[in-house]
């Protein structure tokens, strides 16, 4: 029998507070856990968590477009690439600090995204997929073409500037640098998730979802289709560019092979496996892309399955065979297949169903009505009683 | 026509109806060549003419013709893979991301049958086509049919996972070393004849004829046979087809099998130009075919072939003549042209427009 909590009662608030506190403690203590308590090869594992966050933000941005606005894009690698190269060029050639490059990368990508959103007004579905595919395929080629700026296929190496400042508790060694990078990127990630959540809960977010569910109904209800469709394209591209900036920080270089079509496809896979049309789905999606896929790949190419440096078993068949590393690709395919069949709503949906076995949150009608009225008309917000009759107007 | 009218007036009505029909037909034909369409075609023609004049003055007419003929190879193959994509789009309503990999697997099967089991090339290709068709029918039955046909995201994900599985399976089965590809046509260095001073290889001619025949057979299959009629019916309206007693599952399975066979045929033919091939050789072909299918309109078989030829010609000509573009950017320019065409005609050149109801 699951515990039942009513929304916005003290018990429910306490439950939320405890849940968020646990999440915060886990996130903050990851460097310490991986680095010092278990004595494992610390910076590598911390860096993988950092990489996970980079992927999570990219998936989040893609989800805003595919999951919430229903426009299919398989060219988001280009936006990640633009962010990455903006940062790399500014840091390597003009000596900017990493974080300041966001100021250039985000508006740039937003504008490019809006630009791509304009043809997307006429072209939809799979036709749009081809247009975005063209953009995604274009990016690495353009990078190679404009070699003088981007460094071509040699890539662009930025100087490492991740020495932690003196007020932080870390020393200036590998571990300290990894931890400092982890917290910097964690801060950006949290900001991006909060932004995405607020966007989806706002008037614009509801308009975008209305467009996804039925364009004609949405436009009849007064939603400005061209405005919201191009804007969400731009916003999604901006999220991708932030992810690109994070990747540039994490890798401390920009290469033409990374933001290629494979990345776009991998991001879509992460999106679906994590859970389409959810904000939090980006987290399990990214965890899967970085940890499970990487572990499988390492296992397949070496023939040993190692988790956290502990060898679980080894397969001699793979060691002797050339191309044996490709078994990881097969496993990825099978994994994707299993998720699509068993968890159609993605991992996050499975986790939610699991949670529902233990905790159920019941809606609180009077509180919901009150909140709705406050949102609709902040001036008259006062009495929660008797305001249940007015549904939220579709805008 | 109303039944209660007298025979005389019935005759008159018939004449009027016939005249009306003729006028209607003429009007529709006229409408098809509306001012806008004439303008678009005019722009297209003008661009092609200007480019041709530029190209001929640049390097002379012989090289121009030679390049056109060379580009037809790629064009026909893109067209053939695009047909496979179109067939699956008509059957299932999604782009089959695994199409290129399925065809790639077919090519390796062909090499296997030819090199290690001693079959002649033609039989090996046929055998590979049959095995691919059976495999695709199995995939449709086990992985696609369990899903609601309107659940497109899930089906796309299934095709993506098939992509990964085959892409991983082939190197495990056949190794990662590149393989040479046999050809069913005379393929020695001096197997060619001259036409207007243009060198045409028998091998290329063979590919054009094979793909042409395949297109002819597919359109006959779709237009003249019972299963073809059923397939067109299912792709036009699934619910109604089910109501009139068509076994929709089996019909869609037929579509998948046909698509896989065509794809394998195309890949076996194109592999020769990319040899020695490894397990990633279909990647570029798939992008171009994807583009061709879209340009042609996703639900038109003929459109796919014509668009495939257009993409092939555009790729070679632009890459060959405009130095700034070169062979590397040719892909991009071809895709950019497609984007422009799609902005003007959102459902491709030959695709049927979707009418939406709320």
Please provide a written account of the structure.
Helices cover 68% and strands 5% of the residues of chain A. Chain A has 395 residues and is mainly α. Chain A has a single domain, classed as ABC transporter involved in vitamin B12 uptake, BtuC (Orthogonal Bundle), CATH 1.10.3470. In chain A, the strands form three sheets. In chain A, strands 1-6 form a two-stranded parallel ribbon. A two-stranded antiparallel sheet of chain A has the order 2-3. In chain A, a hairpin with a 2-residue loop joins strand 4 and strand 5. In chain A, helix 4 runs antiparallel to helix 10. Chain A is globular. Chain A starts with a strand and ends in a 19-residue tail after the last helix. The C terminus of chain A is likely disordered. Chain B is mainly α. Helices cover 75% and strands 2% of the residues of chain B. Chain B has 13 helices and two strands. In chain B, strands 1-2 form a two-stranded antiparallel sheet. Chains A and B meet through helix 5, helix 9, helix 11 and helix 14 of A and helix 6, helix 11 and helix 13 of B.
First-to-last CA distance of chain A: 40 Å
Low-pLDDT regions of chain A: 381-395
Helix content of chain B: over 70%
Characterize the quaternary organization of these chains: heterodimer
- Principal-axis shape of chain A: globular
The poorly predicted ranges of chain B are: 1-5
Protein chain pair with the most extensive contact, residues per chain: A-B, 45 and 46 residues
How much of the polypeptide of chain A forms β-strand, as a percent range?
5-15%
List descriptors.
heterodimer; A: 395 residues; mainly alpha; ABC transporter involved in vitamin B12 uptake, BtuC; two-stranded parallel sheet; two-stranded antiparallel sheet; 16 helices; 6 strands; disordered C terminus; B: 358 residues; two-stranded antiparallel ribbon; 2 strands; 2% strand
Give a nutshell description of this structure.
Chain A has 395 residues and is mostly helical. Helix content of chain A is 68%, strand content 5%.
């Amino acid at each position: 029998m699951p515990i039942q909590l009513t929304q916005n009662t003290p018990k429910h608030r306490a439950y939320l507070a405890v849940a968020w506190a646990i999440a915060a403690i886990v996130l903050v203590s990851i460097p310490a856990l991986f680095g010092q308590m278990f004595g494992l090869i610390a910076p590598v594992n911390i860096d993988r968590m950092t990489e996970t966050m980079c992927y999570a933000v990219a998936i989040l941005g893609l989800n805003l477009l595919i999951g919430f606005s229903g426009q299919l894009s398989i060219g988001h690698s280009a936006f990640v690439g633009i962010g990455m190269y903006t940062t790399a060029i500014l840091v390597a050639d003009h000596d900017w600090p990493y974080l300041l490059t966001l100021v250039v990368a985000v508006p740039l990508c937003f504008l490019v995204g809006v630009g791509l959103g304009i043809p997307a007004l006429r072209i939809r579905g799979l036709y749009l997929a081809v247009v975005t595919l063209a953009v995604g395929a274009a990016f690495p080629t353009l990078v190679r073409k404009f070699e003088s700026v981007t460094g071509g296929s040699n890539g662009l190496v930025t100087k490492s500037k991740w020495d932690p400042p003196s007020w932080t508790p870390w020393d200036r060694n590998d571990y300290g640098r990894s931890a400092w990078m982890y917290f910097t990127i964690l801060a950006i990630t949290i900001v991006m998730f909060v932004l995405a959540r607020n966007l989806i809960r706002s008037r614009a977010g509801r308009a975008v979802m209305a467009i996804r569910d039925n364009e004609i109904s949405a436009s009849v209800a007064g939603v400005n289709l061209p405005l919201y469709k191009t804007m969400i394209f731009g916003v999604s591209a901006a999220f991708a560019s932030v992810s690109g900036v994070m990747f540039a920080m994490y890798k401390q270089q920009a290469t033409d092979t990374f933001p290629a079509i494979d990345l776009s496809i991998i991001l879509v896979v992460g999106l679906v496996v994590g859970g389409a049309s959810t904000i939090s789905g980006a987290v399990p999606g990214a965890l899967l892309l970085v940890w499970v896929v990487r572990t499988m790949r390492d296992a397949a190419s070496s023939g040993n399955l190692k988790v956290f440096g502990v060898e679980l078993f080894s397969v001699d068949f793979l060691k002797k065979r050339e191309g044996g590393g490709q078994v990881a690709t097969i496993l990825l395919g099978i994994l994707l297949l299993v998720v699509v069949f068993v968890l159609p709503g993605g991992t996050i949906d499975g986790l939610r169903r699991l949670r529902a076995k233990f905790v159920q949150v019941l809606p609180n009608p009077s509180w919901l009505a009150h909140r709705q009225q406050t949102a609709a008309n902040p001036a008259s917000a006062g009495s929660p009683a008797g305001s249940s009759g007015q549904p939220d107007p579709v805008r | 026509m109303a039944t209660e009218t007298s025979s005389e007036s019935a005759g008159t009505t018939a004449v009027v109806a016939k005249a009306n029909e003729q006028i209607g037909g003429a009007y529709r034909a006229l409408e098809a060549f509306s001012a806008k369409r004439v303008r678009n075609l005019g722009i297209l023609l003008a661009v092609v003419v200007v480019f041709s004049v530029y190209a001929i003055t640049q390097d002379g007419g012989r090289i121009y013709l030679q390049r056109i003929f060379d580009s037809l190879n790629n064009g026909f193959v893109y067209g053939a893979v695009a047909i496979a994509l179109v067939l699956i789009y008509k059957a299932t309503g999604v782009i089959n991301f695994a199409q290129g990999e399925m065809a790639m697997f077919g090519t390796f099967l062909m090499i296997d049958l030819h090199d290690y089991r001693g079959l002649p090339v033609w039989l090996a290709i046929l055998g590979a086509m049959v095995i691919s068709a059976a495999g695709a029918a199995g995939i449709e039955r086990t992985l696609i049919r369990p899903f609601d046909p309107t659940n497109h995201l899930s089906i796309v994900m299934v095709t993506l996972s098939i992509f990964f599985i085959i892409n991983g399976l082939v190197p495990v089965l056949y190794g990662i070393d590149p393989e040479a590809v046999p050809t069913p046509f005379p393929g020695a260095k001096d197997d060619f004849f001259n036409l207007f001073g243009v060198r045409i290889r028998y091998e290329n001619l063979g590919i054009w004829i094979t793909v042409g025949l395949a297109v002819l057979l597919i359109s006959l299959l779709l237009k003249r046979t019972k299963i073809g009629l059923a397939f067109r019916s299912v792709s036009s309206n699934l619910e109604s087809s089910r109501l009139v007693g068509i076994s929709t599952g089996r019909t869609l399975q037929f579509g998948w099998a046909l698509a896989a066979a065509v794809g394998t045929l195309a890949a076996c033919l194109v592999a020769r130009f990319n040899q020695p091939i490894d397990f990633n050789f279909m990647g570029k072909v798939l992008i171009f075919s994807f583009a061709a299918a879209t340009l042609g309109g996703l639900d038109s078989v003929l459109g796919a072939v014509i668009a495939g030829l257009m993409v092939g010609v555009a790729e070679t000509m632009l890459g060959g003549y405009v130095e700034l573009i070169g062979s590397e950017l040719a892909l991009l320019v071809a895709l950019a042209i497609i984007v422009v065409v799609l902005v003007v005609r959102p459902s491709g050149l030959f695709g049927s427009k979707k009418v939406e109801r709320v």
